[in-house]
Amino acid sequence: MNYKTISTQADIVLVGSFNPAIFHPEWFIRNKIIAEWNYTKDDLLFVPDITQVSLPSEQYLKVLLNQFSIKAMMPSDFLGLRDIVSSTFSLLKETPVHQIGLNYTSVLKLSDEDWKKFGKKLAPIEVWTNSAEYFSELDDKKKEQAGLCKLVINLPRNDELNGFIRSTLSVNSFENREITFSINNHIEIEKKDVPQMLDILESHWEESLAFSKLYMDKILNA
Amino acid sequence: MPEQAISLSFEQVIHGHSSLIEGQPWGLLNSEKQTEKSAFPYAHNPQTKFFDLSLTETGTSHAHTPNKRFKNQSTIPVELKDYTEDLKQIWDGTVISFNEDTIKIRLEDKITLENPETIVDLSIDEVSSQDRPLIKEGAMLFWYIGYREGNKHPRERFSKICFRRRLGWTDKEIEDANTIAKEYENFFINNSSQPA
């Protein structure tokens, strides 16, 4: 299939119990987790229950009371995300962490020809259009609007961990023929503690990135 | 997307430079388990949600609006950056020694795992000023080589070295180290009586 990658991102999401107030840029700098950088007030949203920080090198941090997430927009920063999370929570060892998501997302622009074919390959449209009695009476131009908008597929994990691998494919822009393809590698942290979360992160992050990229390539070229 | 083969050798000093990069709009957070109604914009409204498998706590929804500045009261303004990266080679490196001009690094290929380790001398100019304080024996790094390309950004090769900032050892790392140490111990004990 002919497509162009518009953007790629990877993110690590933790669900648990967090104190957003901790995660000020100064905390990361003083603890040598991130190199010192000149952040401005535009890079920072720091209110009692939400912290959002625009980190160096197109990385973004968001912390809510029940979620910690960090994402990188450049593949050359994906591996480094693990180190930031690992270092952060090696200092915050008592944080209750229940779940972890190792996520990978690409935005892709399809060729005109593939735009028409790809959705039909993944989700045959006839079941849906034949079930709408009015559909046969529509003009051809309207009929062309029928098609895949969003698809979610759940896969079981192939290891001993509880969780799933869930792929979501959705239209990002009809006008630009762009789709968003996300893979959520979700893992339950049985002990609900940081040490187990860190072990999972260390042993699964690279593997998850490699799997997501390969899986996405295979689906797109199926 | 067609793969472009590039010839890589350590003798090539690849000087990449990155243009100013800008982020993209932050997607909205959705959470299935928020049973309490929250005042925050990121709270999921259970009334609008049916059985939607895509809304998990650990997945991030990707509200992507290319080339638009997304700004509201509760998110930091970002813009879509202009280029993407196509990584062709990644090495895991460890500093063996260094002086004021060069660093000797042992590299493990992360793409072709069966390639043997290589030791290279790298100019200290390849290391960003922010990472230079991290240069010491045993320091770990990643070295990336690839291409950057975008609508307004011509295709160019880049080389990026990132020193790793790690605090503390995880239990698994300690366990792995103990396992390897035990293997070495057993090897030397079992082979210590053999003549050289």
Account of the 3D structure:
- The complex is a heterodimer of chains A (222) and B (196).
- Chain A has 222 residues and is α+β, with helices and mostly antiparallel strands.
- Chain A has one domain (3-220).
- Chain A contains six helices and nine strands; from the N terminus they run E-H-E-E-E-E-H-E-H-H-H-E-E-E-H.
- In chain A, a hairpin with a 6-residue loop joins strand 7 and strand 8 (163-173).
- In chain A, helix 2 runs antiparallel to helix 6 (194-220).
- Chain B has one helix spanning 171-191, and strands at residues 70-72, 75-78, 83-98, 102-109, 118-123, 140-150, 156-163.
- In chain B, the strands form two sheets. A five-stranded antiparallel sheet of chain B has the order 5-4-3-6-7, with no helix packed on it.
- In chain B, strand 3 (83-98) and strand 4 (102-109) form a beta hairpin.
- Chain B starts with 69 loop residues before the first strand and ends in a 5-residue tail after the last helix.
- Classes of the chains: A alpha+beta (222), B mainly beta (196).
- Chains A and B meet through strand 1, strand 3, strand 5, helix 2 and strand 6 of A and strand 2, strand 3, strand 6 and helix 1 of B.
The gist of it:
With 222 residues, chain A is α+β, with helices and mostly antiparallel strands.
Q: Find the biggest chain interface.
A: A-B, 75 and 52 residues
Radius of gyration of chain B: 24 Å
**Unreliable residue stretches of chain A:** none
What are the low-pLDDT stretches of chain B, counting only 5+ consecutive residues below 50?
Answer: 1-56, 61-74
Principal-axes geometry of chain B comes out as extended
First CA to last CA of chain B: what distance? 55 Å
